[in-house]
């Protein structure tokens, strides 16, 4: 008796461990957890975050153009043939005729120069405009990153909803398969009692086989969607996860309308175009002022005995350089015309986006309202079809309904199930589109 008790306890322990390991192996993830994970681990978002860092470094690079620049240089020259200079002949001989020159060689064969040069822009319209453009470009990178985030969230949400729909389809298939197996048992009993034909039993067997095949296909589709979901979340493909089977449908109110990222992008591009237009104006009519200077030494050497020498002399200077554009053809005029046309196109694009977004919001709200009603209707129809099937199956047992009646009611039940899932898909799609169109991601 004691041995049997130990065996029974061991079986319960083994069963508990199996159930626990299965539950631990498969994690059920809610949608929000999938979204949070994707925002951290999605590889495309990681690439885009690096792009933002690159744009910040680019801005700092352009800003560094205002800083003082220091360069050192040195050179050595050995003249095999000394360079010639022409001097007026009157400098050597006052009696010489004007307009006559005498060639002379000056200098020594060894020349050494070493210096340190500094340069610093005090005011440059082009540099100021470039810095402002870089700041706006960084802002554009941020908006583009948020667009990437939004797209990842839309993709993950779509995949999650697809997985939920497939999981519900698998649930319906399992219940339909149970109904068909029960019907098959009934038909086999009736055949044994010579109350049903073999063809009737085969019809039910065929339906069971079809449901099994469809179930296998649906499982493969479900696993495929989960794999794509894990890829978008940046998870290990071997990780065993699942989604919540229950789909919550409730009539939501209107989402608050925020400027979409697409509209924000166009508005920021407008800022960039206006700044580029301003920079072109300033570069055409404002001067540039630079500070520069140099300090170093110049060395001269002679290597012939007995008068060889090497002497160094210090040299240095500092100055300002003013540059003012006077005329550059019609280049500035053409650049201004191009930017003005770009600004007009930008304004047209912004107006089009606003009108299009308003129209799409209105359509999505109507589609969501229609889909919500359809979900409610198909839910009642599915419940009614299930009741009719159960009644028909009971009548068939009592001999008041034929197999054809049972199969017809079964087909009606499956049709209402598909209609219910289709209505849910329409609702989820419309709700997701409405969130995106109103900027609520």
Based on the model shown, name its key terms:
alpha+beta; Outer membrane efflux proteins (OEP); two-stranded parallel sheet; 9 helices; 8 strands; about 15% strand
- First CA to last CA: what distance? 64 Å
CATH class placement of the largest domain: Mainly Alpha
Query: Over the alpha carbons, how many angstroms does the gyration radius reach?
Result: 42 Å
* Strand order in the largest sheet: 2-5-7-8
Structural class of the secondary structure composition? alpha+beta
> Major beta sheet, specifics?
4 strands, antiparallel
Strand content: 15-25%
Description:
With 441 residues, the protein is of the alpha+beta class. It folds into 2 domains: 27-79 and 135-248, Outer membrane efflux proteins (OEP) (Up-down Bundle), CATH 1.20.1600; 257-287 and 327-441, Outer membrane efflux proteins (OEP) (Up-down Bundle), CATH 1.20.1600. It is 66% helix and 16% strand. It has 9 helices and 8 strands. It has helices at 2-25, 31-41, 43-63, 89-92, 125-192, 198-233, 261-285, 331-398, 403-437, and strands spanning 27-29, 69-78, 84-88, 101-105, 110-123, 241-243, 288-302, 309-323. The strands form 3 sheets. It has a 4-stranded antiparallel β-sheet. It has a two-stranded parallel ribbon with strand order 1-6. A hairpin with a 6-residue loop joins strand 7 (288-302) and strand 8. Helix 5 (125-192) runs antiparallel to helix 6 (198-233). The longest helix has 68 residues, at 125-192. The radius of gyration is 42 Å and the shape is elongated. Residues 1-24 have low confidence and may be disordered.
């Amino acid at each position: 008796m004691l041995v049997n008790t130990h065996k029974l306890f061991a079986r319960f322990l083994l069963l508990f461990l199996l159930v626990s390991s299965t539950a631990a192996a498969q994690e059920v993830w809610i949608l929000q957890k999938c979204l949070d994970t994707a925002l951290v681990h999605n590889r495309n978002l990681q690439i885009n975050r690096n792009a933002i860092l690159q744009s910040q470094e680019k801005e700092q690079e352009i800003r560094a153009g205002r800083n003082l620049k220091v360069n050192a240089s040195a050179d050595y020259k050995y003249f095999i043939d000394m360079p010639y200079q022409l001097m007026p002949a009157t400098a050597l001989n006052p009696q010489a005729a004007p307009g006559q020159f005498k060639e002379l060689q000056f200098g020594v064969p060894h020349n050494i120069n070493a210096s340190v040069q500094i340069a610093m822009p005090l005011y440059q319209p082009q540099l100021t405009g470039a810095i402002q453009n870089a700041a706006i470009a960084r802002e554009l990178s941020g908006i583009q990153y948020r667009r990437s985030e939004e797209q990842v969230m839309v993709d993950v949400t779509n995949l999650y909803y697809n997985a939920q729909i497939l999981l519900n389809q698998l649930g319906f298939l399992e219940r339909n398969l149970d109904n068909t197996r029960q019907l098959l048992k009934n038909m086999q009993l009736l055949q044994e009692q010579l109350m049903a034909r073999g063809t009737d039993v085969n019809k039910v067997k065929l339906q069971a086989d079809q449901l099994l095949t469809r179930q296998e296909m649906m499982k493969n589709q479900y696993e495929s969607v989960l794999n794509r979901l894990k890829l978008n979340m940046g998870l290990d493909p071997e990780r065993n996860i699942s989604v919540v089977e229950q789909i919550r449908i409730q009539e939501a109110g209107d989402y608050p309308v925020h400027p979409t990222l697409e509209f924000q992008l166009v508005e920021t591009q407008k800022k960039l175009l206006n700044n580029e237009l301003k920079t072109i104006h300033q570069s055409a009519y404002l001067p540039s002022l630079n500070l520069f200077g140099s300090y170093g030494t110049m060395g001269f050497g002679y290597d012939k005995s007995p008068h060889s020498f090497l002497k160094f002399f210090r040299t240095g200077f500092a100055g300002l350089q003013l540059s003012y554009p006077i005329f550059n053809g019609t280049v500035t005029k053409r650049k201004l015309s191009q930017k003005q046309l770009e600004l007009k196109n930008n304004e047209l694009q912004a107006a089009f986006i606003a009108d299009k977004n308003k129209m799409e919001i209105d359509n999505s709200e109507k589609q969501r309202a229609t889909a919500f009603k359809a979900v409610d209707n198909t839910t009642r129809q599915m419940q009614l079809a299930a009741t009719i099937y159960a009644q028909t199956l009971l009548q068939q047992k009592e001999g008041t309904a034929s197999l054809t009646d049972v199969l017809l009611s079964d087909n009606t039940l499956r049709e209402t199930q598909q209609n219910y899932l289709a209505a849910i898909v329409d609702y989820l799609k419309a709700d997701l589109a409405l969130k995106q169109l109103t900027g609520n991601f």
